[in-house]
Amino acid sequence: MRTIKIFDTTLRDGEQSPGCSMNIKEKIEVAKQLEKLNVDVIEAGFAIASKGDFEAIREISKNVKKPIVASLSRALKKDIDIAYEAIKYANKNRIHTFIATSDIHMEYKLKMDKKEVLKHAVDMVKYAKKLCYDIEFSAEDASRTNKEFLYEILYEVIKAGATTVNIPDTVGYTTPEEYYHLIKGIRDNVSNIKNADISVHCHNDLGMAVSNSLAALRAGANQIECTINGIGERAGNAALEEVVMAMDVRKDIYVSKTNINKKEIIKSSNLISTITGSFVSANKAIVGENAFAHESGIHQHGVLENKETYEIMTPESIGKKENKIVFGKHSGKHAFINKLEELGYNFDEFRINELFNQMKDLCDKKKNIYESDIEVLIAKNLKLNQSGYKLKSFVINTGNITNSTSTIKLISEGNLLEEVSLGDGPIDASFKAIDKIIGVSFILKDYKINSLSKGKDALGEVSLILKRDNKKYRGIGMSTDIIEASILAYLDSVNKYMILKELDNNENEYDAKNISK
């Protein structure tokens, strides 16, 4: 199985997408995340483009250790000199130089003939080679270049010292079958091609950037250039996450792998969206909000029984928490019952039918039904918001040389209740104090913390599950103080337990009266 190198150009080509400019601090943050993603090459920018680009590349070179750091440069000495100055601090560096090779570009943009372009390309590769061992050469607009001329220039730049030759589909013009034969033709007709990696750089003007990249892989390319979320010039570039997951899911077809840490894909996608303000569509492959969402009742039932019925990869494999069951008019009762149980409610069939019908009615009034909407329906039916324990205050005494102590004050039906307890930590002590107040103890089955925002004052969400009498009760609490969020989540579970226990008692009492009659 071949290992395909992933060359990420989010910070260069991706940033050229309108509205996606980043400052130095943001670029360094992205570069560090790309290092966690374990890309092989980071194209950090176009050093000669601006002073800001130069400084960003230089700082990235100093701040990342594992990936190769590359800078783009035209096939000009001044470009190459500045590119090297920007990347020279990197542990591993690369100069990426390019010149156009298609007839239309040579005639109208370069005003040069083939002989001049060939000589210039070779001279500049030789010049760059004196500064840096790792040289990538790109034949701009290669997919529209005369094949015989393309073979010739690739042979000569490899001979001059290029370690990677890039075959860009600069304007997104080619098709998978055509691109496959182009790459195969290079392998068959460039006699020294084994001395260099074949790289591909596809644009998405016709919506085929990923397909073209994968076709090139099958033809023998061993480096794919792409961007997070597919951002880039015009319609964008091949999306890294789609290329990587296509190879992973269809190993039987591509018989290749990457070094990418797939669990960092969602983090990388979200970071780019947050920094650039360019958010992906809900139905975007792999990273879209709906990529693992199911509304159809048939799909929901299948996924709940076995995820592989409708999911070809797991959300966890890309760093996403879980698939999402979306409730709408197409949803089935099976998924609804599963959600109720997940929320900590164990209802009889009559009450489930009542709530399910109310949920369906709500679907006719609003497009999306969220977990919070279901909680509101339950609260209205059970009057949860009118009863239960509410937090008045808490005081914590803790440290690394003393046992944690928590003093909890709760209000229930107008009464102030207070207890103190020791624990293994402030949260454990608080939970034990609450158990003392209500006179019931629980088993903590699950406890998760999630940051809902950024910064030191980030809003934290705690989700937990308590178990008692073989039934589970889920609670959620939010606060900028994680201890308070934990206490609120615990009380949320406790209140569900108390209400459902009261319902069970009332139903048992009703059944007992009927039996006695």
Question: What report would you give on this structure?
Answer:
The protein has 517 residues and is of the alpha/beta class. It contains 17 helices and 18 strands. It has an 8-stranded parallel barrel, surrounded by 7 helices. Strands 13-14-15 form a 3-stranded antiparallel β-sheet, covered by helices on one side. A hairpin with an 8-residue loop joins β16 and β17 (460-468). α5 packs parallel to α6 and α7 packs parallel to α8 (209-219). It is elongated, with a radius of gyration of 30 Å.
Would you spell out the secondary-structure blueprint of this structure?
Elements: E1 2-3, E2 5-8, H1 24-37, E3 41-46, H2 51-63, E4 68-74, H3 77-87, E5 93-100, H4 103-110, H5 114-131, E6 135-140, H6 147-160, E7 164-169, H7 176-189, E8 197-202, H8 209-219, E9 223-226, H9 240-249, H10 251-254, E10 256-257, H11 265-276, E11 293-294, H12 297-305, E12 324-325, H13 333-343, H14 349-363, H15 371-382, E13 390-399, E14 402-412, E15 415-423, H16 426-438, E16 443-451, E17 460-468, E18 471-479, H17 482-516
